[in-house]
Amino acid sequence: MKSRFLAVFQSPLFVGLMLMSCVSLAADDGGLATLRGASIPSAAPASGDALKKAIEDAPLERDFTQQPPLVSHAIDNYPVTKNFNKCLECHSWENYRKKKATKVSQSHFQDADGKERASISPRRYFCVQCHVPQVDAKPLIANTYQRPNTR
Amino acid sequence: MTKPSLFRRGFRFISVGVLAAFLLGIVFTAAFNVAVDKTNTEAFCISCHEMKNNYREYQDTIHYANRSGMRAICSDCHVPKAFAPKMLAKLRASKDLYHSILGAIDTPEKFESRRQEMAQREWARMKANDSQECRNCHDADSFDYGSQGYRSAQQHEEGLRTGQTCIDCHKGIAHRLPQIDQGIGSSGATGISQEVLHSESAEKE
After folding, report:
1. B178 interface with A at CB cutoff 8 Å
2. B177/A81 CB distance under 8 A
3. What is the ipTM score, two decimals?
4. CATH code (residue A70)
5. Which of B4, B32, B96, B129 could disulfide-link B8, Cβ–Cβ 3.0 to 4.6 Å?
6. Phi, psi of B148 (to 5 degrees)
7. Is residue A116 domain-resident?
8. Along the 205 residues of chain B, how does pLDDT read in single tens digits?
9. One domain, residues A14 and A76
C-alpha cells in the first residue's frame, strides 16, 4: 500500500503536472490574461475603503447621458425585497414631498407591455439594479473618456 | 442527661426545618435561574428548526455583526429582563411548543403566510412596553445628535418629542418585514398598510 502511494510521485503524469505548473508560474502575469489587455500589477491592490463610504452630498454629475442617477446617501440595511422596498419610503410619489426627496421618474411607471401604470412598474421595482450609492471610485485603468457636455 | 423539654425539642425541630427550607430555597432558586437562562441562549432558540430561516435573516443585520462586535441575541429583544415580565413571556412562549407539534410554521411558506400576524403581535408588544428591550441598550438620553446623520437627528428629535417609541419607526430591523402595501403591481392589496407600518393610526387615536 505504502509503496504504491509513493509510486504516484514517480509517475510520468505527476512529473508532467509539476513541470507545467512551474512553467505557468514563470510568466509575469501569473498566467492570467486580462480582458483589458493591461497587465495585472504585482503591487498590493489599492485600499477599497473609499468604496465603503457613500458621499452624502449633492448628487454627482452623470458621466453618460443615459446613466441612472447616483444615490447621494448610504443605503446600508435598506432592504429591497419582494415584501418591501425601503427606497419608496421617501422616493415614491406619495412620500417625496414630505421627505423632501427626489421622486421616482415617471418613465418608471411603464410596464413591460408599454402600458402606463398608476405607480412604479414591477420591472422597475429593484432600484439598486441601476441606482448605486456614489463613492469616490477612481478609474481602474487610466483612460481618455470625456463626459459629454449635456448641460 | 435530662431530656430537653417538649418545647425545646419542638423549637429545635422547627429551626432545623427552617434552615433546611432556606438552603433548599437557595438551591432551587439557583437551579431555576440556570434553567431559565438556558432557555435564553441563542442555541436553545434555534434548536427548533422553525427558527432556522428566521435566524439566517437576522445574520444579515447589524444586531448580529457589526464593526464593534456587539451582538443582541434573540432573548435580548424578545425576552424582558425584569423577573415578572420575563416569566410572563416564558409562559406565553410555551404555546410555541403546541404550534411546533402542530407544525404551524415548519416550512418557509407557512412561516411567510403567518409573518404578518407574528410581526404585528411583536410590534404591539414592543409598543406597549415603550420598546423596553431596545432601550436596555439604546438610551435616548445618551444620543449625541451631532454625530448622527442630519436625517436621523431630525427624526429622532421629532419622534421623541411627540412621544413615539423606537418600534414605531424601526420595524423589520432584525427580521425581514412582512408584505407592505406600497401600491406596486397587483400583489400589494394583501400587504400591511403603510399607516400601520409607521404606526400612524395609533397617533391619530
Report:
1. yes
2. yes
3. 0.76
4. 1.10.1130.10
5. B4
6. -85, 155
7. yes
8. 566 788 888 888 899 999 999 999 999 999 999 999 999 999 999 999 899 889 999 998 999 999 999 999 999 999 999 999 999 999 999 999 999 999 999 999 999 999 999 999 999 999 999 999 999 999 999 999 999 988 889 999 999 999 999 999 999 999 999 999 888 876 546 788 888 888 764 444 3
9. no
| Same domain, residue pair A10 and A32 | yes
Query: What does the alpha-carbon distance between residue A86 and residue B162 come to, in Å, rounded to a whole number?
Result: 23
Number of domains present in the structure of chain B? 1
Q: Is residue A150 part of a domain?
A: no
List CB contacts (< 8 A) between A73 and chain B.
151
A57 and A127 assigned to the same domain: yes
Residue B181 β-bridge partners: none
| Separation CA B81–CA B14 (nearest Å) | 37
A34 in a domain, yes or no? yes
Q: Which of A52, A75, A76, A84 to mutate to test the interface with B (most CBs of B within 10 A)?
A: A84
Report the residue from B172, B184, B194 with minimal CB separation from A119. Answer: B184
Domain that holds residue A28: 1-39
Domain extent at residue B28: 10-39
Residues 30-89 of B with CB under 8 A from A: 61-62
Q: Residue B195: name the closest of A131, A95, A8 by CA.
A: A95
> Cβ of B177 and A79 within 8 Å?
yes
Residue A134 to residue A138: CA distance in whole angstroms: 12
* Cβ burial B27-43 (10 Å sphere, 16+ → b, else e): eeeeeeeeeeeeebebe
Shared domain check, A86 and A118 = yes
Residues in chain A with CB shorter than 8 Å from the CB of B61 are 77
The answer for A 80-109 residues in CB contact with B (under 8 A) is 81-85, 88, 92, 94
pLDDT digits (tens, 9 = 90+) for A13-72: 555 555 455 444 444 556 667 777 766 666 677 788 888 889 988 989 888 988 999 999
Look-up: residue for cell 411567510?
B112
Query: What is the number of domains present in chain A?
Result: 2
